[in-house]
Amino acid sequence: MTRVTESTKIVCTIGPASSKPVVIEGLIKAGMDVARLNFSHGSYESHSENIKTIRAKSAKCKKPVAILQDLSGPKVRIGKVKNGSCFLKRNSHTILTADDIEGTEERLSISYKNLAKEVTRGENIFLNDGLIKLRVEKVSGKNIECRVIIGGIISSNKGVNLPDTNLNVPSLTQKDLKDAEFGMKLSVDMVALSFVRKPDDILQLRNDVAGRSILAADHHAADTCPEHAVIACAAPGLEGGGLGDAFEDEVFLECAGGGGDVAVVLSQHALDVFPFQPVYR
Q: Mind listing the pLDDT tens digit of every residue in the chain (281 residues)?
């Protein structure tokens, strides 16, 4: 495989479809530089086995491969949807509610029960990995009335991203702290943290990860934390790392401007989303 530039690295997610030793070896030979382990899924046993395989195949191929532990972070999701899914039509209205209901195109439940207290009129809400865009028009009690800006199919338990909203949730959950401790025991090389809003979010984790590089993924990370972490750039609204409107050329320039000390990670899914959504440039 011919590499375009050695400054560009390839990050591959190791999961059920790619965890077989022969597949991992093939990924390394094809150019994988970093193996990402998603701690939103899988068991400690499966992650441990994957790390052993990656290390062994890295040694066999005589190519260093870093291991990135991606912490779950707080999750906001749509609840159960009637018949599994529904279609949100452009310019229609839908309500996000804290009530536990079976969702339809008119009303959808949301896992974060305090959301109506923290969003304001005019803010954007993205569903289903950024494929659906809503705009808040009114907040009433536990209900958030939204206009559908970009429609699409929404199904049960899909992720919700709020690039304009400062959620009152911790960046590090108790699960994340436990997972980070497990990762240190297995000597992971990098740790990814979502919902980063301020340097203290990263500094808190840094105390627990003994000098590992930290990848900060969120819409405020580029503004507040470029000197403390790698910045993960994704399309606006992408779950688990959407940078919202911070996905601009300025993010790349700022990260590279300080002598190239801060790397930028662009999700492949961002490239998949861009052609279909005119909101993304």
A: 445 456 788 999 999 999 999 999 999 999 999 999 999 889 999 999 999 999 999 999 999 999 999 998 888 899 999 999 999 999 999 999 999 999 999 999 999 999 999 999 999 999 987 889 999 999 999 999 999 999 999 999 998 988 888 888 887 888 999 999 999 999 999 888 877 767 777 777 877 776 676 666 654 444 444 444 444 444 333 334 444 343 445 555 566 555 555 667 766 655 555 555 544 33
Asked if 86 and 79 count as a contact pair (C-beta separation under 8 A), the reply is no
Q: Which amino acid is at 35?
A: A
| Residue 36 structure tokens | 């990402």
pTM score of the predicted model: 0.73
Q: Where in 118-249 does DSSP place strands (E)? A: 124-127, 132-140, 143-150, 152-155, 160-161, 190-194, 213-217, 230-233
The number of CA neighbours under 13 Å toward the Cβ of 277 is 25
